[in-house]
Fold this sequence. Notes:
- The chain has 653 residues and is of the alpha/beta class.
- It folds into 4 domains: 14-106 and 213-286, Rossmann fold (3-Layer(aba) Sandwich), CATH 3.40.50; 119-199, no CATH class; 291-386 and 550-648, P-loop containing nucleotide triphosphate hydrolases (Rossmann fold, 3-Layer(aba) Sandwich); 391-543, PCRA, domain 4 (Orthogonal Bundle), CATH 1.10.486.
- The protein contains 25 helices and 16 strands.
- The protein has a 6-stranded parallel sheet with strand order 3-2-6-7-1-8, sandwiched between helices.
- Strand 2 (66-70), helix 3 (73-87) and strand 3 form a beta-alpha-beta unit.
- The longest helix has 18 residues, at 465-482.
- It starts with 20 loop residues before the first helix and ends in a 5-residue tail after the last strand.
- The relative contact order is 0.13.
Amino acid sequence: MPQEENSxxxxxxxxxxxxxxxxxxxxxxxxxxxxxxxxxxxxxxRTLKGKALALVKKHGIDPQNILALSFTRVAAQQxxxxxxxxxxxxxxxxxxxxxMHGFALRQLIKxxxxxxxxxxxxxxxxxxxxxxxxxxxLKNLVEADVATVKAELNHLSSAWEQNLSGAExxxxxxxxPAFISHWIRHREVFGYTLRAEMVYQVKVALEQSxxxxxxxxFQHLIVDEFQDLNPCDLxxxxxxxxHGCEVTGAGxxxxxxxxxxxxxxxxxxxxxxxxxxxxxxxxxxxxxCSKAVLDLAHHVIxxxxxxxxxxxxxxxxxxxxxxxxxxxxDQFAEAAGISSMIKTMYTSEGIFPxxxxxxxxxxxxxxxxxxxREALAKVGLVVADDTKQKPLETETGILLRAILSLCxxxxxxxxxxxxxxxxxxxRIGETVLRSIYDLCVAQKWKFFEGLSEIEKNPGLIDKFGPxxxxxxxxxxxxxxxxxxxxxxxxxxxxxxxxTIKRAVDYVTGDTAVKESLLKELxxxxxxxxxxxxxxxxxxxxxxxxxxxxxxxxxGIHILTxxxxxxxxxxxxxxxxxxxxxIPGLEVGRQEELEALRLFFVSITRAKDxxxxxxxxxxxxxxxxxxxxxxxxxxxxxxxxHTGLAMTDHRPRx
Length: 653
């Protein structure tokens, strides 16, 4: 029988806290590779935390020799925080916890002198730089539109994610030599690395470069969400195993939903064959989902006959729960019905849910979410804003990070470009930036080198040279005011604090914005335990790449199904439960199976209740895209044979 999720025996070692017998057995295992098959709500992450603690406290492994990889930044942050809290009384060293991209970035920075295939020093193009610099510049250089440039970059990403060789790339994706030539020249001038290539570059270096040294002598590798690894990720894990890591992979083939980045459920299904001597562990008891929710989820996922059955059972103490299916006349009646049910939940004594999730298969241009938001507003309910940018992700925050980077070293083309582009008062626009770029290409200069030469000789660029030189000189003078390196010899922490305050004052005069930036920076300093500005900027860079994940505050949230991975809620609504959305019309077998797994993941976010809905007609924006006529949907094929009773809300004739 499972023990209560939060129960702790007084006689247990502390790495056993809150673990049932199956979780303990998996957590304390050492001596061979291992795979942990764990269905939704079975305590997988808690078990992996116990595994890391047992390695330190039972098996005597140095914390710095343990590497744990999570799929999202949110998951990595939480695991890192939990391990630091559990170990802080006995050590100042902790296991290294990161996303795969964060891990790759750290290794590339450490080995910047040993990786010849990317520019150095290592600077990764974040969302802003990739969209506003890389894509915009390439659009003009190749004389194409944004969609074409994105498609070409996606081809590159796909090749890296699939771990394709050059010949395989040509066979599968038909590389565009002209585009690649412009991209290579552009990255040489600005010295950036695309996020999509980082893991691939680490994989190649581990395979081919004897000089490539990992950040630590990792002896144990813990990989969460193993089913979400793509071929390149898997190759890195294989290389780490080859270099001496004992691998523990944890996940669920039923929750493999990232086929668009080339992950497949076969990765975890094949673990025992891929890692000699590996041992298998299973977690049986689901502590999250009610009986009704779990029963329906299993009924749905068993449509995949290739899956590995994990025998997941509801915890005997769980609620009975409920599953509902509603049919409405159209999307407006559906939205009104959903809002009415949620309003009742929030006003009925004893039903009040802390979190309500409304999950959509897709929501381009808010096509499906807008009517629901409007209906909720009519009954006085507000949907949480899960898209709000953090202060350091705004343009002011991006400018601040560039200024701080230049304080540490001005041979930084990425930061120079960001500062020149985002300072609105310097009269450095697209035409001026292009003239600097063309000069750098002609002279084979890095962007920062070109700026230095123009500063010395403004005549290098007719008309714009003096303006560029004046701006560069002004920025250098301001950097000298912001960063006083002599302070570091006295107190590095105080020097970093003073530098940050001066930089914040420089980039904004808005008191509220200043406070928000300083608050987030201080939180990152505390989270990353950084004592230097360079360490802080590296930690922020690692946070800005890879899958973000979502951390939910109490309230009503409308998300796409993919973004719901890793979340849970008291009640989950799944509107538009129709074939044209789930799985989609005219999809192949593999696409259908992935949609099935995505549907399963969405259902199992619910602790208590799942409420499906569909409509007899969809009009206007939700009508048939191809014809412009009203759509007459059908219930998703995944629910047709479940025996689920349907409540019909259509007006009677």
